[in-house]
Amino acid sequence: xxxxxxxxxxxxxxxxxxxxxxxxxxxxxxxxxxxxxxxxxxxxxxxxxxxxxxxxxxxxxxxxxxxxxxxxxxxx
Length: 76
Fold this sequence. Notes:
This protein has about 80 residues and is an alpha+beta fold. The chain contains two helices and two strands. It has one domain.
């Protein structure tokens, strides 16, 4: 498997793999290879999403008109 360039291309390939596995009739050896590739793509996507979440900052306008940056949190 070649490492995907970005999240979008990884998701596209993962969707292709799922479609082939659901609709096709590849031999078991090919299914195992595709499964392994899918697991690696899932890990890649998960890592990219984690990185993106860490970069997200919310801009909160304070009552005095100033803008404050604060880290993203799921509770908000």
